[in-house]
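Question: I have long wanted to understand how a fold can be written as tokens. Here is the record:
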Amino acid sequence: MGRVQGVPRLVSNREKGMDAKSYLERILYTRGEAANWLAGVDTGYIGEKYDADVGWVPHTSRFRHGVDGCVCEYTYDPSGSRRMTLYGDRTCRINTYGNSFTHCDQVSDSETWQEKLAAHLCEPVRNFGVSGHSVYQAYLRMKREEARTSARYVILNIYSDDHSRNLYGWASIAAPRPKAESQTLRRPTKPYVKVNPARGEFLELPNPCPTPESLLNLCDLDWVHEHFKDDFRLKIILAQENIKRGTPENSYEEIASLAREQGIESRIDSVTRLTAALQQLYTRAALFSTMRIVEKVEEFAAAHGKTVLYVLSYTVADAATALGTGYRFDQEFLDFLKHKALPYVDDLEFHKADLNRYKLDVNSYLSRYYIGHYNPLGNFFQAFAVKGSLTQILEPKPIAYSEVRSDRITNDAIVNPGKLK
């Protein structure tokens, strides 16, 4: 604070910039909102309910946000997976995990890529996707559900934003809503990880609100500030807010210190250098976290006799950038999968090959498949991108790809594909 002739000078919000407490105050829950989350009423992008183990899970709902403005229906089997509409009477040996591109937001139950894949393979595919989940949350849900509803094969779908979601313990930190607007899109706390690539640090941290009663802490500004003021993601967001406000200098020292902690030497004395440092910090930590989580997934799979297929899907913006310029923010992660010789499906490579079939610009091409998430045609695209790599690892092969003569496929083998010889 400067002084003029011994009198304190008033400092505007623009000059002060954004501090942690002011930002966190914008995303506090009301007690009514906390109660709604616990009851699963009017919460989330789709119907969702608080879950102490993984943050939240979906529940039955209908929303008008599908293709051509249609209503999408979301229903769930007793296992908690999205309702299987095909071959539910047959043994399921494929479980899928991930976020909204796994859950298949914006399409109804029978329009998911899992159901399109099931129709093609002639066997069921279970969908444990949850909108908004990180890779870490998907891993935790996989461990829980595989103990209850096990499958020999697991598909882990990793989406553009899932890497960064690993890094913070309150989902709403990255998605604030002004008080004047609907609060229903904001989500509760969740398990997360803390990483430092320079030191090889990877710490698994539990849900900051591990009981239904503790969710009310998100209504208390002092509690929220004490628990989240040093959050890695929050520091990045405050710097971005200060850039927007025209006060980037308020974040120079903080981000330079954070960069040094993460093994990045960077002189930050301009908006350009601050922006570059934020991008490097965030992307490096996010991809590092996912690589460590994938290693844990592989450890779990090996210990329980499972095979994992990784599916990489992308925001329409990341897809447009990759198809238009060739730049991929996740190249380091792709190199990691190749180095580890892990089976994966890269949606961008399938989109690139598909784009070459059309005389369309990139944005017009992608609008065929995206309405935010994949539309029904996009889910067909995803199913057929997955089927080749999946059928390679399935043993025995699914009915659709069995070498057994069709007249010798027994009823028992149809009900239980694992017995198909």
Summary: DSSP finds 17 helices and 13 strands in the chain. Residues 84-168+191-206+221-419 form a domain with the Rossmann fold fold (CATH 3.40.50.1110). The longest helix spans residues 271-303.
